[in-house]
Amino acid sequence: MTDIKDICKKAFEEKFNCAPEYYSYAPGRVNIIGEHTDYNGGFVLPCAIRYGTVMFAKQNGTDKIRVLALDMNNDYDEFAIAPVIEKHDTKLWSNYLRGVTYQLAAKHEGKLKGLDIVIKGDVPAGAGLSSSASLEVCFGNLLNNVFSLNESLMNIALIGQSAEAYIGMKCGIMDQAISANGVCDHAVRIDCKSYDLTKVSVPSDLVILIINSNIKHQLVGSEYNDRRESCEKAAKILGVEYLRDATMPMLLAAKDKMDDVTFRRARHVITEDERVLEASKAFEAGDLANLSKLMYQSHESMRDDFEITVKQTDALVEIVKTALGPGKEAVRQTGGGFGGCVVAVVKPEDVQSVKNAINAQYKAVSGIDATIFETKACDGATFKKL
C-alpha cells in the first residue's frame, strides 16, 4: 500500500499545486462464506484485505468536489455539493462519489464544503473484491471526518450501500460494512438484519488465498437484481420479511406454491445462512476439515441453486480442491458471481502446490491466466489529518 500512497500524494501535489491536508483509506474485502445472504437479512463472514483505496484531499474554498481518479486513466470530474446531485452520463466511478455526497449533504445541510481529491486504489476492478465499496467508504469517511459529521462507521457503510442503489445496484450491506469495520487477524460475522458485528479469529496457521479468474463481472444492470427479486418473491410466499427468517421445513412445505427457480434460490439462501454460523465455529476452533466441507457445499449451492458461477470459476475451484486433497479443500467462488474470484483457506505449506496447479491447468480451460493474491485479515477504514 505504501506505493499507492506515495503515487497518490505526489499526483495530488502535481494536480493541485499544494500539499494535501487529509488522508483516507478503506480496504476491499473477501467473503469467506455467506453469498447473497446479506440483502436477505442473513449472515456473512467476510474479512477486510490488504488491498484498498487511498485518497488525499484538501479543502478548496468552493462548493465543488474536484476529483482526479488515477486508475481511470487520470479521469477528472467536478460537481457542486447539493441535496440533489445528478448522475454523470459516462463516469461510473464518479457516480459512487456523487451518491455518497448527495446523501450526506441532504442529511447535514450546509456542513459540506468543497474538496480537491486524488484517488488511487489497488483492488482489482471487476474481481468481486468490492472495489466500489472500498471507494464509497473511503470517500464517506473522508467527508465524515473533514466536516465533523459524527457519523458512525456503520452509518458510513449504509450511506455507501445507498450510493449503490443510486446507480442502480440493489446490493446488501456486507461489502461496505466490512470495509468500514474490518479487524486485523479476524473475519467479522455480520448479522445483516441487526447489523451486529462478531469478531471471528482467523487461526495464525492459515493463509487466505484469493484467485482472480480475470473474468470481470459487472453487476449493475445484471442478473444480480434478478436474484434479489427471486428471493423477495420467495419471502413473500413464505410470509416472512426476509429469507433469513425462514427454515428448510417452511420452504419444503411451500414448495408447491413456487416455481422451481424461486425454490432453488430460496434453498441456497436458507442453507447458506446455516453454513455461515457453522463456519464461524470451525474458524474459531481451527477446524479446517469442517470449514472445507462447508465452503465447498457453499460453492455447490451457488453453482446449482443460485446459478451465479461460471465455467472458469468452477474450474478454478476444482483445480484447487484437487490440489489440496480431502479434508483441506476449503475453497469456493466468492463475491456476487458471474466471474470474479475464488477464495481458499489453506495451510502455508500448501500454498505453492495450489499456485503450481493453477498455473499449470487454468489457462487450458479459460484461455487466460489467473492472478493469485495472498492476504491476511486487515483493519477497516482509517483517516488521518496531515
TrEMBL record:
Keywords on record? ATP-binding, Carbohydrate metabolism, Galactose metabolism, Kinase, Nucleotide-binding, Transferase
Q: Which organism is it from?
A: Succinivibrio faecicola
Protein family per UniProt: Belongs to the GHMP kinase family. GalK subfamily.
InterPro entries membership? Galactokinase, Galactokinase_CS, GalKase_N, GHMP_kinase_C_dom, GHMP_kinase_C_sf, GHMP_kinase_N_dom, GHMP_knse_ATP-bd_CS, Mevalonate/galactokinase
Report the protein name in the record. Galactokinase
Q: What sequence ranges are listed for the domain GHMP kinase N-terminal?
A: 95-182
Recorded hits in SUPFAM superfamilies, A to Z, give:
GHMP Kinase, C-terminal domain (SSF55060), Ribosomal protein S5 domain 2-like (SSF54211)
Pfam families this protein is in? GalKase_gal_bdg, GHMP_kinases_C, GHMP_kinases_N
Top-rank lineage group of the source organism: Bacteria
Keyword Nucleotide-binding, does the record have it? yes
Q: Where is the GHMP kinase C-terminal domain?
A: 281-363
NCBIfam families xref list: gal_kin (TIGR00131)
As recorded in UniProt, its EC number(s) are 2.7.1.6
Q: Where is the Galactokinase N-terminal domain?
A: 10-58
Kindly indicate whether the keyword rRNA-binding belongs to this entry: no
- The coding gene here is galK
Q: Name one GO molecular function term.
A: galactokinase activity
